[in-house]
Design a protein that fits this description.
The complex is a heterodimer.
Chain A lengths: L2 H13 L25 H15 L5 H6 L3 H15 L1
Helix pairs in contact in A: 1-2, 1-4
Chain B lengths: L1 H10 L11 E6 L2 E7 L19 H21 L8 E12 L8 E12 L2 E9 L5 E13 L1
Antiparallel strand pairs in B: 1-2, 2-4, 3-6, 4-5, 5-6
Helix pairs in contact in B: 1-2
Classes of the chains: A mainly alpha, B alpha+beta.
Chain lengths: 85, 147
């Protein structure tokens, strides 16, 4: 799977947890999930659990600590699916 | 078990008149059971309702959150600390209220873990009265950590 394909699959997962005052078109690779997209800590866990289901991977606590931007999510997913394939 | 249960209650960041856990009767990795008796002189009965005291649904929800999220989360975090530095933020509830809980009633709360990942605890919860009737039930989640 290319990183572009990973990104395309991540966008709707993230969009599902955006607060009402943030539009889905504000999702960009460099967007900070909590500071810019205003996803709260509880919903960030929901995003991660959905990502785990969607890509059939498991994230560790250190992955969670490194997760700041949408691109970080792409990189984490990419490293996990590359590792198993 | 008895001392663990006592330590969990001591770790909670609540006190009277907003502590709604008397005793933890069971706790393990999968769930918790605890009880609370709503005293006749709880402060909210004075206004809910006028001349007709009934325990507010938000207080029943709070009681279930203190047991099913805060107390259970304190246990799951694995290091029970006495000082009140447990941080708990309720993030979601979906409750059905089936029967009223009146002043003086003792209730049991049973919570089962759905997941505890990255400090987010999600539980299915139910509250039973002394006749073992389910008075409210639902699911709730919150973020739990030590500050």
């Amino acid at each position: 799977m290319t990183t572009e394909e990973i990104y395309a699959r991540l966008v709707p997962l993230i969009a599902a947890y955006l607060p009402e005052d943030v539009l889905a078109d504000e999702i960009r690779p460099e967007a900070d999930l909590t500071a810019e997209l205003n996803i709260n800590s509880a919903h960030l866990v929901d995003v991660v659990l959905d990502v785990e289901d969607k890509f059939d991977i498991e994230l560790s606590n250190s992955d969670m600590e490194n997760l700041r931007t949408v691109q970080d999510a792409v990189d984490i997913v990419n490293s996990k699916i590359t590792a198993v394939s | 078990m008895l001392s663990t249960a006592t330590h969990i209650i001591e770790s909670l960041p609540y006190k009277k008149p907003f502590l709604f856990v008397d005793r933890i009767t069971e706790v393990d990795e999968n769930g918790i059971t605890a009880e609370y008796t709503f005293r006749n002189d709880e402060y909210f009965y004075e206004g809910h309702f006028v001349n007709n005291p009934v325990t507010p649904g938000v207080i029943l929800t709070e009681c279930m959150a203190q047991i099913g999220l805060a107390a259970f989360g304190s246990y799951l975090l694995g290091k029970i600390e006495k000082s009140a530095n447990l941080s708990m933020a309720l993030s979601h509830t979906d409750m059905d209220f089936l029967y009223p809980v009146l002043p003086g009633e003792k209730v049991h709360v049973i919570a089962r873990k759905e997941y505890f990942r990255f400090n987010k605890l999600k539980c299915s919860v139910k509250m039973l009265n002394e006749r073992d009737t389910v008075v409210c039930k639902g699911v709730m989640s919150g973020m739990i950590k030590y500050l």
